[in-house]
Amino acid sequence: MPSLEEELFPSTPGKVKIERAHAMNRQFNRCFSSTSTMFLWALFLIALTATYLSFQSFVDSGSRYFAASWGGIQWEKQVRSSSQIRRSGGMSVLVTGAAGFVGSHVSLALKKRGDGVVGLDNFNNYYDPSLKKARKGLLNSHGVFIVEGDLNDARLLAKLFDVVAFTHVMHLAAQAGVRYAMENPGSYVHSNIAGLVTLLEACKSANPQPSVVWASSSSVYGLNDKVPFSESDRTDQPASLYAATKKAGEEITHTYNHIYGLSITGLRFFTVYGPWGRPDMAYFSFTRNILQGKPITVYRGKDRVDLARDFTYIDDIVKGCLSSLDTSGKSTGSSGKKRGMAPYRIFNLGNTSPVTVPTLVSILESHLKMKAKKKIIDMPGNGDVPFTHANISHARTELGYKPTTDLQTGLKKFVKWYLSYYGYNHGKSVN
Ligand SMILES: O=C(O)[C@H]1O[C@H](OP(=O)(O)OP(=O)(O)OC[C@H]2O[C@@H](n3ccc(=O)[nH]c3=O)[C@H](O)[C@@H]2O)[C@H](O)[C@@H](O)[C@H]1O
Fold this sequence. Notes:
By secondary structure, the chain is α/β, with parallel strands linked by helices. It has a domain at 68-270 and 314-350 and 387-403: NAD(P)-binding Rossmann-like Domain (Rossmann fold). The chain contains 14 helices and 13 strands. The strands form 4 sheets. It has a 7-stranded parallel beta sheet with strand order 3-2-1-4-5-6-11, with helices on both faces. The protein has a two-stranded parallel ribbon with strand order 7-10. β5 (211-217), α9 (241-260) and β6 form a beta-alpha-beta unit. α5 (101-112) packs parallel to α6 (129-141) and α8 runs parallel beside α9. It binds the ligand O=C(O)[C@H]1O[C@H](OP(=O)(O)OP(=O)(O)OC[C@H]2O[C@@H](n3ccc(=O)[nH]c3=O)[C@H](O)[C@@H]2O)[C@H](O)[C@@H](O)[C@H]1O. The site of ligand UGB has 18 residues, from β8.
C-alpha cells in the first residue's frame, strides 16, 4: 500500500498514470454496462461535437471579419499611396483619431501642404458615427486613407509601421469628454491608458522611431487656481477620471522618452471648438437644442459664479499641431534601444482669453437669431472645473503659436457650418 504522501507526490510520474488508467477503465466499464447508457453517452457526444463545430465557425467568422477590416494587397496599396510625401522636406504622419474633430482637421492641413498622411480610427459610437464617416469621406476626397482599427490592436500597428516608415505620429485618438467618465470609466482606461501604451510600444519598436506629438488636455490643471495656467503649475489634483488619464498619459510618455529615446510633445488643448466639432460639447449641443426649441442646462459655479472656459478655435489648434510636428526633433532610439537624449516637451494650446458659459450662449443666440430656453443649475459634482485660462507664452516662443480667432468669430463659422451640414440653410442666414 502506498503511503498517503506517496499518493499525493508519487516518486515516479508513470506510477500515477498507470494507476489512474486502471481506475478509469473500471469507471468506463461501469458506465457502459448497459446499452441504454451507451446510447445516452453517444447522444451527449454528438451534441458536444455539434456545439464545438458551431463555436469554431463563430470564431472563424469573427477572425474573417477582423482580417477583412485591414490587410491585403489592395489595403497596403492604399496605405502607401496615402503616406506619399509631395513636398521637399515633408513628413509622413500616422494620425490616430483621424475621423475625430481635431484629427480630421490636422490630417487635411498636413495633406494640403504636401505631407503624407495615414489615418487610424475605430469609429466608435461615443457620438454619432455618421459624423465621423462624413469626415472620413471629406478626407478621402483629398487622398487621405483612414484605416479602421483600434489603438489596442498591436498587430495592426506593427503592420502599419511595416508598410510605412512614419517619420511622425500625431496621436489624437482618445476617449474625450469630462463628464462621461462617470458613466463609462472603462472606456477611458481602454483608450487613454492601454491604447496609448500599445501605440508607444509600436513607436519604440519601429525603425526608424517616429517623433510623437499627442493630445493632452487643459483638464490636467484640475483644481489648480493659479491663473493663467502655466505648464510648470501643479497638475496633481485632477477633478475627473478623464483628466487623470490625460495626466497619466503625460507620465507614461515621459517614461518612453526616458527609456527608449522617443521624441515626445504633449499638447494641452483648451476646449477646442469649430466646424465639424464634437456633438457632446456644450457649444454644439446648445446649438442643436436652441434650433430645436429644446431647453439647455447651464451650469453655475460656487457662490453663483459663472463657469468660464478658454475656448480655442480649431484653426489655431491646427497651426499649433503642425508647428509641434515641425519642431519636434528626432527620436534617438533604434531596435527598441535608446541611443541618446530626445526632446520631451509640453505646451498649452489655448486662446488665453476665457469667456463665461452664459456669454457663449448669448453669442450663439445672436448668430442663430433665436433665444435659448435656459435652465440654470448649480454645477453638479461631475468632474467639471470652474474655469480654465491658458498661459501660452511657452508655445509662442517655441512654436510661434499665436491664436487669432476670438469666440464671436469662431462661433459664427461654426454656426454657418452647422446650418449647412444639418440642412437648415433654406431661409436662414447667419449674422
Ligand atoms: O479642455 C479640455 O481639455 C476639455 O475641453 C472640453 O471639456 P469642457 O471644457 O468641459 O467642454 P464642454 O463639455 O463643452 O463644456 C464647456 C462648459 O460648458 C459647461 N456645460 C456643459 C454642458 C452643459 O450641458 N451645460 C454646461 O453649462 C461646462 O460645465 C463647461 O464649463 C472637452 O469636452 C474635453 O474633451 C477636453 O478636451
